[in-house]
Design brief:
alpha/beta
Length: 470
């Protein structure tokens, strides 16, 4: 792997020049585990997100945004580095092995853009190595992180009964996130006005990530909405071998109806909490006069199944796990616009460079969102999951209305996302030509067989290096 110095030498010569002082700034609020379908800009009927609506009115909603991988460390690592998960080999949440690849914060800082990261890191290396101009209240995952990495045999996480009770009112449930928001407000009021160069600020909050504990007012707000998912374990997608693996891995078949209802109720409150923090940030930018020259983005690292098909949390390439919110306003983004073209977190990261005028490494993934047309049926978006929880790797290709999940050790799945069935019916046997077409697009990006074997080899290295349990 190239050293940081060698990497930075590959940047265009123009990168040595500082961007113009009047270029826009960029603020990204990244939550954790937010399924976009549970928000007003994405059409939810009762989850209250007025500030996401406010941001949508000011800017552009990307209706079909995906994460690079539906798990924290792989997705965040990919966003920070501009590289695919299979390229980085950050397959899961185990951080026993680290990588020395440069972050976007380092590359921006090398060109005179003041890059700031606040809150959760949970990426391919420790926060101190990432090279941001400022790293405030970083929250690294303690090594070795998640050790349930074995796929064959399938590792099974402990404490499913405890997880089933992860909801309800709790004292100070948002204390950590409140501290991060306070730090962002202080930075915006004290440091940002003194800078004479563009800046980027990434504010990383933990909610609505499990557990779904909330304050009394938020618990009460959704008292009438403790509901069940529209499709449970009886649905066709729930019976796919990978879905069965995930329920076994998490032990979620112990979640009864009351627990499911209350977990969902708490999740709704956590989303509204995050929305309030977005409002606080927007108010601060507006009050300080910085809003008109700041690109503001709201997104998340992955989604949340929330009981659909009997699945919870992430690690699935179904829409509720792999999709993310992406709402962006400010210079370069048209107010009130909706973009149906599929995009991902790489495209958002590319937007930071586009806005600030910095040169981005040419081999990094992604196209600036500012350049994405409203409806490009040919554009391909890729996601992958190769960590623990399923028996083998899986890869997602989205193009236009069609979505292929290529499963290395189970039947492939093809869905028409514009049909009324969505993901309820696997159409792979009815449309073999479309499967072949999307598989061809997948193989332009990687060989699924080769990457599945690389992932398995990596997992075996991890298992040998990890402390032995028991």
């Amino acid at each position: 792997m190239s050293s940081r110095r060698q990497f930075l030498q590959t940047l265009p010569a123009a990168a040595a020049l500082a961007p113009p002082a009047r270029r826009p700034n960029v603020l990204v609020l990244m939550s954790d585990e937010h399924n976009p379908f549970f928000s007003q800009p994405y059409g939810h009927p009762f989850v209250s997100t007025p500030n996401m609506q406010r941001l949508a009115r000011l800017g552009t909603v990307f209706s079909n945004a995906y994460c690079p991988s539906p798990l924290c460390l792989p997705s965040r690592s990919s966003f920070l580095s501009g590289r695919r998960v299979f390229d980085l080999q950050t397959y899961g949440n185990c951080n026993l092995f680290t990588s020395d690849t440069p972050s976007y914060g380092r590359v921006l800082a090398s060109q005179g853009v003041h890059s700031v990261h606040i809150g959760k890191t949970d990426v391919y290396n420790q926060a101190a190595t990432l090279g941001f101009s400022e790293m405030i209240l970083p929250a690294d995952r303690n090594p070795p992180g998640d050790t349930y990495v074995s796929r064959n045999p399938l590792a099974v996480q402990a404490d499913s009964e405890g997880r089933a009770g992860g909801f309800g009112v709790k004292p100070n449930p948002f204390q950590g996130d409140n501290q991060k928001v306070a730090a962002a407000l202080q930075w915006l009021s004290e440091t940002a006005p003194k800078l004479n160069t563009p800046w980027t600020l990434s504010l990383n909050l933990l909610k609505p990530h499990f557990p779904h504990n909330v304050t009394q007012d938020l618990w009460d707000q959704y008292a009438a909405h403790a509901d069940l998912p529209p499709q449970g374990r009886e649905a066709e997608p729930a019976n796919h071998p990978y879905a069965q693996d995930l329920r076994r891995f998490f032990g979620t078949d112990v979640f009864n109806g009351d627990k499911v209802r209350n977990l969902r109720r708490g999740y709704y409150g956590c989303i509204t909490y995050i929305d309030r923090q977005l409002g606080v940030i927007l108010d601060a930018l507006e009050k300080s006069g910085q809003l008109s020259n700041t690109v503001v983005a709201y997104t998340s690292d992955h989604g949340e199944m929330l009981g659909k098909y009997g699945l919870w949390w992430k690690r699935s390439l179904y829409e509720d796990s792999a999709r993310i919110p992406m709402i962006v306003a400010g210079p370069g983004f048209q107010p009130g616009r909706r973009v149906d073209t599929p995009v991902d977190l790489h495209d958002l990261q590319a937007s930071l460079f586009e806005a600030t005028g910095a040169a981005r490494p040419k081999h990094w993934c992604g196209t600036p969102l500012q350049r994405i047309p409203s409806n490009d049926p040919q554009r391909v978006v890729f996601s992958e999951f190769q960590g623990g929880g399923t028996r083998a790797s899986a890869f997602l290709i989205r193009q236009g209305r069609w979505k292929l999940i290529y499963n290395c050790a189970a039947p492939h799945q093809l869905f028409d996302l514009e049909s009324s069935d969505g993901e309820l019916t696997n159409l792979a046997s009815k449309h073999p030509g479309i499967v072949r077409k999307l598989e061809k697009e997948l193989r332009r990006i990687c060989s699924p067989e080769h990457e599945n074997q690389r992932a398995e080899d990596y997992i075996q290295r991890l298992l040998k290096a990890l402390p032995q349990k028991g």
